[in-house]
Write a structure and sequence with these properties.
7 helices
Amino acid sequence: MLILRDVLGFSAREAADTLETTPASVNGALQRARKAVDERIAARSQQATLRSLGAKRVREIVASYLDAWERGDVDALVAMLAEDATFAMPPYPTWWRGREVIAAFAAEPVHRYLPTQANGQAANAAYRWDPEKGNYVAEALEVLTLEGTQVKAMTAFMTPEIFPHFGLPGELPSHET
């Protein structure tokens, strides 16, 4: 309804005719859709958050975050995550919510990370230890969403084939820190 009315500019009658319903039903659905959007859209854009923190502070936050993951420091990671933080790994349908649930993944450090950016947001390249190769291999590009100085969402795109597009190596030697 939101798309028909607010994006395409249909009248209530036109939307009702298109969907074979009544204008009253259209108006009710539009009110519910607008409320749902208002509840889900962040009060502040990610770009505004990053600008307010400044590039240096964002780099510090990302460095601390990556250090906590690499060291397997669950307590440090919990302190950096928003209480309702989420972690997703497209294309897998599973995702996790909550700082303790997410931080539990850090208990077994098997990754190395390089900071980067994606679509103007803080991001990192995740490399997983490969015992057969004896080094770390590209695994995911993880985009971070910050809420103030805390990490609100992590979206790890499990597509290592995109690393060259970001100027990232496909592998990291085991001796790099």
